[in-house]
Design a protein that fits this description.
Blueprint lengths: L2 H13 L5 H16 L1 H13 L12 H33 L8 H20 L17
Helix pairs in contact: 1-2, 3-4
């Protein structure tokens, strides 16, 4: 595991465990700083969300970490959109696509990672069959 990703994952697990009272506040502060600095941490978030396990049949990181990663990625994309719209006013804000605000290299990294994820998960893979959400049925 990448040391930064391991640290983020540990903080998420501590923050989601009520019995970890001594480290809970510290974990929340750390995660808050990751989310507030999405411009710098979005690559970690992308890796947390898309990296497959070594077996390739599941995701490498737990669902809590992957959900947090989506929140960081959303903040990153929203912040880029707000920055760009601030330069161009309301009309610019209304006509900008979320991905138009990304530099070409950043867009390419995000696009390639998400396409690989979709292919591995939904075209060639189990469609997140091991996800906690799949154990619930709407029809039972």
């Amino acid at each position: 595991m990448d040391p930064e990703l391991d640290q983020i994952t540990q903080a998420i697990l501590i923050a989601s465990d009520p019995s970890q009272t001594s480290l809970h506040a510290q974990a929340l502060d750390y995660l808050s700083s990751i989310q507030q600095n999405a411009q710098m941490t979005w690559r970690w978030a992308l890796a947390l969300f898309v990296e497959p396990s070594t077996e390739g049949s599941d995701r490498k990181y737990p669902p809590q970490a992957r959900f947090f990663a989506l929140r960081v990625l959303e903040d990153f994309l929203d912040n880029r959109l707000v920055e760009l719209s601030a330069r161009g006013g309301l009309l610019n804000f209304l006509t900008i696509d979320r991905f138009d605000s990304l530099e070409q290299e950043t867009f390419k990294i995000v696009q390639e990672s998400l396409v690989k994820y979709i292919q591995s998960e939904y075209i060639y893979g189990p469609a997140e069959a091991s996800s906690p959400c799949t154990s619930y049925s709407l029809w039972s």
